[in-house]
Amino acid sequence: MPEFVTLDMECWQDDLSPVQLAAYEKAEKEHNDIRQKITDVIKDSSGQNIFNGNIFSAYQLTGRNTLDILNHTSHPAKNQIRMLMPKIFSFLAQCRSLSSTTAGITKTHRSVYARTYPTIVVLPDGSSFSIRYTEPREIIKLPLDLNTLSEEEKKVRLDKRKPKKKIRVYEEVDDSFSSQKYLKMLKKK
């Protein structure tokens, strides 16, 4: 087992963006602070090994829960370990594994996208104004609110929406065709 636990973020610091690098440095600082506090607890407890051979088993969470770790510690150090436990577990919950694979399969997490298109919005009263819209549309016509209309206007609008009856036109076929007229043309040849 190594002398100290390293913070393995599974990424190269050179490939990180400035925001990711700042988060990495913050996590590394918290990690070093927790490691220093655990080392101080060991020194304060007369140099005894408070985890029975596995100093950082609580930190790595290798199959032990909090109660097992506290039961295996010496009595003077129990209170100090209890104070450190929430910080250790909250730190481990916040650590993310940043790598190129996590960035490759996600979508763009932005509420405002870089490309917008000029669009005209037409209000129900006929007035219009232009906006930038995320989809390439020329005109967006807003619907009319029927609740603002009077009863007569509402009835006229709803009648216009109803399907209209189709008018059937019957054609009368004129049967004045005479085949004898065309037979004369065929016989002359």
Automatic annotation (TrEMBL):
- Could you tell me which Gene3D superfamilies the record lists for this protein? Mitochondrial ribosomal protein L55
- Which GO terms fall under biological process for this protein? translation
The record ties this protein, via InterPro entries, to: Ribosomal_mL55 (IPR018615), Ribosomal_mL55_sf (IPR044884)
Q: Per the record, what is one GO cellular component?
A: mitochondrial large ribosomal subunit
Provide any one GO MF term from the record: structural constituent of ribosome
Query: What's the protein here called?
Result: Uncharacterized protein
Taxonomy, superkingdom: Eukaryota
